[in-house]
Each structure stands twice: as C-alpha cells, then as structure tokens.
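subagent[fold] <- orchestrator: predict structure for attached chain, return tokens only, no commentary.
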Amino acid sequence: MSDDINFDEEKLKKEQSKYAPKDENEIKEKVLNKEEKLNSKFSTIEKLKPYWDDFKTIFSMIKDCVTGKYKETPFTTIASLAGVLIYVLSPIDLMADFIPLLGYVDDAAILGLAIKLAAADIEKYRQWKKTIDVEENK
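subagent[fold] -> orchestrator:
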C-alpha cells in the first residue's frame, strides 16, 4: 500500500461489514462460486499479489467451514473474511477499481485489516490444514 494514502481503521471495518454475507448460502453464491474470478484478481493485480498466499488460505478456510469440514472458526469471522472477498470483487467501493494506481489500494487495505483481525483463526486453520494434509498423504 502506498505510504501517502492512509485509511481510517473504523472506516475500513464499516466498509467491510457492509459486504459481509448473512448466511452460508450467500457465502456459497457470492464467494465460493467466484473462485476463478478471485484467483485471477489476486494473481494478476499488483496491489493484491502480496496477499496471494493469504487469499488461498482464506478461501480454503471459508470453503472448509461452509462445507462443515472445519468447524473451529466462528461464523462472524468467516462472514467477515467472505465480505472482504466480495468487496475485492466489487468494482465500486471506497476507491473505484478502475482508477489508475489507486483503484485497488482500498481493497488491499481492507484485506490487510481483515487478515490482521482474523490472524489467530487463520493460523489455527493453517495448523489444522497441515495436520489434515499429512493424514491424507499417509
């Protein structure tokens, strides 16, 4: 994120909450069904590329929680993280995505904030996922 652009954390939280899904069906419809589009954004847009690994973990975590495979993360955290991904997909947000150089700064800021706020849940999921991957490869 550019050093000369600052976002108020409360404003970011408020914006994030506007996009948070209300239930698992909305998460499936607005996030899980958009995997290809999200992959494309995170792998090609410069402001989002630094979050590629976090995105893959968050997407996997949301998917595992919604399908019931992983049940340790509170729904509020899942809804919040899903809301951020919906926000990233939205072309109209705090800073319209089509604005050169600045269009994705707000997306990166909100994503960074969400990762910071959900860091403990994300790390717990990563540890669980490693355990599951080891067990599946036996």
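orchestrator: received. Logging for downstream: Confidence is low (pLDDT under 50) at residues 1-5. Residues 1 and 109 are 7 Å apart (CA to CA).
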